[in-house]
């Protein structure tokens, strides 16, 4: 799924008997005054296993706290937690089957990349159609761009969960040797290329790492092609069409050509099975100057104590900058800077027998108190700005992402065809890195795209 963080599947099954049945779809007030309910929470998490922190949060904090709040209102709520721990695709299949047959849970946590697919299949519906009034003060704490994770075709389907953001990381030690500033902030692609040219003079250093090729998988798309496309002002999918061999796509392929054909990147690294991991190690060893990655790179890869490519002097040696658009103002929405993010989203099953209670539980799960508690003391981005302000104060990099990146970020189109489109984009970058011209590669990409999604869906 192209992300490093794992998303658990949370299902709240509002049933007196413990099994959600077919309900009067559209009756948003049904059972609104129920004084005794049983809710079953099903998560792709297990205490001591997969997503253990989330499982512990549900079992030890969510259940007792929500039960207590309901009791104070005169409602007897029995909350059950069914633990699981399997692959995300297996959960996706299970959720889709449950929804298709009119069953499933009341609240379902899904990867945002699945949202549009479920919506187009009619398996989920806009939030206001399911529960009615969706007024909630929490919306004011979730940046508009982040709210987009739970939206499809201009309609709100759910509430976003934790997210991330992509920036340009750079090695300050290498920058100093190359005569580049420690507070570097490029304002165009050319600024990045110019910095790369200066770094090129350092022996044993790869100036720029922009993920490319099929071996890098979804990392090529999320940490390469999609941010670059956003920088041209035209996302990969808009107005019901997938972008074909457009001028914008050719510009992106041209950027790859300048990096890998001009000696600014290592083309061999892009072909290695473990190339991404290798790039992490090389950066931590002061052998890569600039690298586009998500905040995961900072908090989990380079983390001095427990990172997968520990960098003892990370805090002093690593800088970060916003990803610039092709030129100032050329990004999506006229932005000067762009980013891409991933994340999960909670939706409410349109078949729920307790729409009002499900919405109340949704608000609780995404309240400042609950979100902060779910972090278990760790510093990590959340969907809520107020929580980020509290928990990220000691981490300047994560604070930067929360304050500067999340308000301008974008998300992948959550459609069933996306994986095929992503694979075609990965191949296109591989072809450019191998030496083919951007124009030639763009034509081949369009042919692959048409075969994957149909001519009528290509713009």
Account of the 3D structure:
- The protein has 459 residues and is an alpha+beta fold.
- The protein folds into 2 domains: 10-163 and 342-411, Periplasmic binding protein-like II (D-Maltodextrin-Binding Protein, domain 2); 166-338 and 417-457, Periplasmic binding protein-like II (D-Maltodextrin-Binding Protein, domain 2).
- Helices cover 40% and strands 16% of the residues.
- The chain is built from 18 helices and 18 strands.
- It has helices at residues 52-72, 88-100, 115-120, 127-131, 144-147, 172-177, 189-199, 218-232, 247-261, 275-284, 296-301, 314-317, 355-365, 368-374, 385-391, 396-405, 418-433, 438-453; strands spanning 10-14, 36-43, 76-83, 107-111, 151-152, 155-156, 158-163, 166-171, 206-209, 237-238, 241-242, 288-294, 318-321, 323-324, 337-338, 340-341, 343-348, 410-411.
- The strands form 6 sheets. The chain has a 6-stranded mixed sheet. Strands 9-12-8-13 form a 4-stranded mixed sheet, sandwiched between helices. Strands 5-6 form a two-stranded antiparallel ribbon.
- Strand 5 (151-152) and strand 6 form a beta hairpin.
- Helix 8 (218-232) crosses helix 17 and helix 9 (247-261) packs across helix 17 (418-433).
- The protein starts with 9 loop residues before the first strand and ends in a 6-residue tail after the last helix.
């Amino acid at each position: 799924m192209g992300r490093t963080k794992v998303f658990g599947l949370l299902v709240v099954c509002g049933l007196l008997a413990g099994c959600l049945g077919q309900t009067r779809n559209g009756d948003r007030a049904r059972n609104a005054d129920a004084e005794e309910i049983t809710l079953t929470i099903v998560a792709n998490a297990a205490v001591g296993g997969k997503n253990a922190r989330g499982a512990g949060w549900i079992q030890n904090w969510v259940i007792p706290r929500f039960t207590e709040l309901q009791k104070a209102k005169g409602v007897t709520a029995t909350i059950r937690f069914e633990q699981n721990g399997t692959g995300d695709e297996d959960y996706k299949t299970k959720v889709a089957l449950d929804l298709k047959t009119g069953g499933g849970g009341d609240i379902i946590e899904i990867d945002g990349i699945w949202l549009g697919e479920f919506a187009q299949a009619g398996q989920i519906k806009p939030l206001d159609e399911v529960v009615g009034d969706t007024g909630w003060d929490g919306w004011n704490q979730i940046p508009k761009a982040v709210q987009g994770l739970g939206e499809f075709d201009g309609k709100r389907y759910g509430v976003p969960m934790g997210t991330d953001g992509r920036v340009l990381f750079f090695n300050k030690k290498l920058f100093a040797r190359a005569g580049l500033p420690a507070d570097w902030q490029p304002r165009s692609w050319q600024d990045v290329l110019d910095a790369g040219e200066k770094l090129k003079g350092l022996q044993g250093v790869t100036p720029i790492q922009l993920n490319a090729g099929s071996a890098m998988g979804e990392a090529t798309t999320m940490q390469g092609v999609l941010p670059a496309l956003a920088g041209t002002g035209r996302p990969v999918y808009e107005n019901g069409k997938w972008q074909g061999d457009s001028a914008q796509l050719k510009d992106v392929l041209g950027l790859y050509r300048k990096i890998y054909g001009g000696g600014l990147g290592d083309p061999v690294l892009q072909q290695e099975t473990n190339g991404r991991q290798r790039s992490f190690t090389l950066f931590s060893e002061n052998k890569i100057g600039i690298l586009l990655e998500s905040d995961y790179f900072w908090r989990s890869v380079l983390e001095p104590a427990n990172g997968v490519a520990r960098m003892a002097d990370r805090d002093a040696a690593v800088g970060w900058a916003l990803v610039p658009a092709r030129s100032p103002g050329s990004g999506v929405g006229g932005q000067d800077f762009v980013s891409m993010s991933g994340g999960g989203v909670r939706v409410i099953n349109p078949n729920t027998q307790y729409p009002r209670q499900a919405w109340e539980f949704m608000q609780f799960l995404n309240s400042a108190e609950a979100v902060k508690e779910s972090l278990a003391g760790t510093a990590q981005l959340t969907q809520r700005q107020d929580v980020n302000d509290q928990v990220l104060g000691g981490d300047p990099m994560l604070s930067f992402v929360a304050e500067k990146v999340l308000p301008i970020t974008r998300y992948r189109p959550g459609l069933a065809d996306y994986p095929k489109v992503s694979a075609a984009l990965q191949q296109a970058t591989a072809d450019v890195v191998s030496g083919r011209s951007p124009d030639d590669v763009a034509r081949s990409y369009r042919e692959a795209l048409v075969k994957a999604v149909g001519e009528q869906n290509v713009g």
